[in-house]
Design brief:
Largest sheet: 3 strands, mixed
Radius of gyration: 24 Å
Number of helices: 1
Mean pLDDT: 78
Structural class: alpha+beta
Low-confidence stretches: none
Strand content: 15-25%
Number of strands: 5
Distance between the termini: 68 Å
Length: 95
């Protein structure tokens, strides 16, 4: 293998593409790994106190808003809008 400084232009471009892809992969893996929830609260408005749950798709822990607010009425969205595709966090509301 020749030294990096003595590569032809087309060889250099191929080497730089590999370096670029490596750093892009590294950056993406850091971003994905960086989704730590410590210091953040995911609130599901309208669920009953003690009904905390972990979302299957995101892995985020959702907690009830009852510790943070003492007004409003809990409710659910209309059954015509419910489906298997809708996330649990979108079913309950507080108004």
């Amino acid at each position: 293998m020749r030294s990096f400084f003595f590569l032809r232009r087309d060889e250099l471009k191929g080497s730089m593409d590999k370096v670029f892809l490596f750093f892009m992969f590294l950056a993406l893996s850091v971003l994905v790994h960086g989704q730590d929830q410590s210091g953040f609260i995911s609130i599901d408005c309208g669920i009953d106190e003690g009904s905390d749950y972990t979302d299957d798709n995101t892995g985020l822990l959702f907690t009830s808003d009852t510790k943070f607010i003492d007004t409003g009425i809990n409710g659910k969205i209309s059954s015509e809008f419910m489906s298997e595709d809708i996330g649990r966090r979108f079913i309950t509301v507080r108004s």
